[in-house]
Amino acid sequence: MAGVKLKGSKPRWWKPLWMSVLLTIIASGVVGYFLLHVPLERTVGGVALTFLMIGFAYYIRIRPSMKMNRGIYVLLGFSPIGFSLWIVYALSGIGRFLTTHLGPEISLIVGFTVPYIIGAFIGDWIGKRRNYRLPLSI
């Protein structure tokens, strides 16, 4: 029983890892501002966005829930799959056909909404097949 790890316990390197990650992010912001002459608002925005994304990644790994995992699958379907479908739409000539027959407004609306909506549905379908479990999760 001595070798059994408790469910809530963390490895010894957990705290030093997060401390080094935080210090590295802050140091990169300082280097960017002082040495690379990045404007202050971009530096602060980049560091804040990085902290936000690390917090989000920590949250989805430590406190996974069915709703959060479903949202992640929908967003992952929306972004890369939807963008890929948009590329296919743009290169296939469907946009030109719609512009010719229905007008440019309808073609733009269809081109910038339909592929992403289909991508979100594909992402949800993939998540449903995986029972909304993320890769590398228990």
Brief rundown of the structure:
The chain contains five helices and no strands. The chain has 138 residues and is mainly alpha-helical.
Task: Reconstruct the topology from this structure.
Blueprint: H1 14-34, H2 40-62, H3 66-92, H4 94-102, H5 104-129
Helix pairs in contact: 1-2, 3-5, 4-5
Can you give a write-up of this model?
It is a single chain. By secondary structure, the protein is mainly alpha-helical. The chain folds into two domains: 12-63; 65-133, no CATH class. Helices cover 77% and strands 0% of the residues. It has five helices and no strands. It has helices spanning 14-34, 40-62, 66-92, 94-102, 104-129. Helix 1 (14-34) runs antiparallel to helix 2 (40-62).
Comma- or semicolon-separated keywords:
single chain; mainly alpha; 5 helices; flat
Tally of contiguous helical segments: 5
Distance between the termini: 22 Å
Q: Outline the biggest β-sheet.
A: none
Shape annotation: flat
Number of DSSP strand runs: 0
Give the proportion of residues in helices: over 70%
Overall pLDDT confidence: 86
